[in-house]
Automatic annotation (TrEMBL):
It is found in: Cytoplasm. GO terms for molecular function: dihydrolipoyl dehydrogenase (NADH) activity; flavin adenine dinucleotide binding. It comes from Ferrimicrobium acidiphilum DSM 19497. It comes from the Bacteria. This is Dihydrolipoyl dehydrogenase.
């Protein structure tokens, strides 16, 4: 069908989480959907981001557990690491999930076109393989890529981004991570656990800006115990390769000799070369596509979602935006995502997860906040598994006891967040939640105990 126009109810450009979620949800509602993807379905999250990174973090967790097994009376000796094997396992996980996603899309009747797509305007997308797709509605979701720094050209040898790290067959003995955000901290955590000497360099005064400081403090203490160097409040000016490695120069005049440098300063939208001359979609100076509250661009009937717009760059947020757009297209009406209440998960050791407002944010919004914490040192399950660093922190309104924010740091925090996320988004009160029984002994008791304490009476939480 080369050269012919193929008509669809919805055409999606980009098959990352936002794009494929829109396609799957639309197809399940009976829409005829075509989707264009330049690489493999699943986008950054599945191919070069969330999934492969978390596979490596799981490798680090297994390695860490084996090294500490003597505490449980299990003798194993010093474990070894063949990172190439972990690389193969990672790729196997990615390939199986990619195959499953491709099969699911095919079973829903979604037609996938592999090639570079360009939105030409008037509902038309041309593909580098020769096809032209015409949609009654168009959704643009071309994702993002790692940001770079002048003077730190990515070469895969001395300077890497997250893309190159996830292809390594061997870990560097020494590494500097430029950027102390989520990506930088996750890489620092896993590489230190697997034996690399790691230093984080962050230009801002603290790691993980935007995250509750109490949670960050627990992570920083853990990092320092594991030998991770942390330099905050200082930028980088350049580096000088020397054959064996490279020397990183910091803005304060100091330097750091390392094998490799990982640049982890965030991601930028893939908005270049995706719009033809007749497209009237407006792109901001920062490269984000401008949208209204319904994710519609300046061109009627054309929507943009995911990392391409200036919202939280999270796969699950992309899922939600994809669903919201399809509901709008179907005429069902949809509330836009409330970005102040989305769940955030950081897979460092210890893990961090949160939803809703911090105490400071709650005060800034006019609430009179009250806070309760349950340290995991008193939690039976945490003691059993030997992971007692961390706590659950709940922020509520002092007058109504409405749950405004839930913040967790510690083992499996990312899995423990769900009831807190639901509480925040349902605007539940502490009294309502306190009626529910928490199973014992579990880590999840910590949330129940903390909420219980907010009613004014408590068991184990003061």
């Amino acid at each position: 069908m080369l050269g012919e126009e193929q008509a669809f109810d919805v055409v999606v450009l980009g098959a990352g989480p936002a794009g494929y979620a829109a396609a799957l949800y639309g197809a399940s509602a009976g829409l005829k959907v075509g989707i264009v993807e330049r690489d493999r379905v699943g986008g950054t999250c599945l191919q070069r981001g969330c999934v492969p990174a978390k596979e490596y973090l799981e490798t680090a967790a297994v390695y860490r557990n084996i090294r500490s097994s003597s505490e449980f009376g299990i003798t194993t000796g010093e474990p070894g690491l063949d990172f190439a094997v972990s690389q193969k396992r990672k790729q196997s996980v990615v390939d199986k999930l990619t195959s499953g996603l491709s099969g699911l899309m095919k079973s829903r009747g979604i037609v996938t076109f592999l090639g570079d797509g360009v939105y030409q305007g008037n509902g038309r997308i041309t593909v580098s393989t020769g096809e032209t797709l015409v949609g009654d509605k168009v959704i643009i979701s071309t994702g993002s890529r790692p940001r770079s720094i002048p003077g730190f050209e990515v070469d895969g040898r001395y300077v890497l981004t997250s893309d190159e790290v996830l292809l390594l067959e061997e870990l560097p003995k020494t590494v500097a991570i430029v950027g102390g955000g989520v990506i930088g901290c996750e890489f620092a955590s896993l590489m230190a656990d697997l034996g690399s000497k790691v230093t984080i360099v962050e230009a801002l005064p603290r790691l993980l800006p935007g995250v509750d400081q109490d949670l960050v403090d627990v992570m920083v203490r853990s990092f320092k115990k594991r030998g991770i160097g942390i330099r905050t409040g200082v930028g980088v000016t350049g580096h000088s390769p020397n054959g064996e490695g490279t020397t990183l120069t910091l803005a304060d005049g100091s330097s750091l000799a390392v094998d490799q440098i990982i640049v982890a300063i965030g991601r930028r939208p893939n908005s270049e070369a995706i719009f033809g001359d007749k497209a009237s979609v407006v792109v901001s100076d920062r490269g984000f596509v401008n949208v209204d509250v319904n994710y519609e661009t300046s061109e009627p009937g054309v929507y943009a979602i995911g990392d391409l717009i200036d919202t939280a760059q999270l796969a699950h947020v992309g899922f939600a935006e994809g669903v919201a757009v399809i509901k709008t297209i179907l005429g069902e009406g949809s509330l836009p995502v409330d970005y102040s209440r989305v769940p955030w998960c950081i897979y460092t050791h210890p893990e961090i997860a949160f939803a809703g407002l911090t105490e400071e944010q709650a005060r800034d919004r006019g609430y009179d906040p009250v806070v309760k914490k349950d340290p995991l040192g008193g939690n039976s399950r945490a003691r059993i598994i030997g992971e007692v660093d961390g706590f659950v922190k709940v922020v509520a309104d002092r007058n109504t006891h409405q749950i405004l924010g839930v913040h967790i740091v510690g083992p499996w925090a990312t899995e423990l967040l769900s009831p807190g996320y639901l509480a925040v988004n349902w605007e539940a009160s502490a009294e309502e939640l306190a009626q529910f029984i928490q199973p014992h002994p579990t880590l999840s008791e910590a949330f129940g105990e903390t909420v219980f304490a907010l009613t004014g009476r408590s068991l184990h939480v003061g």
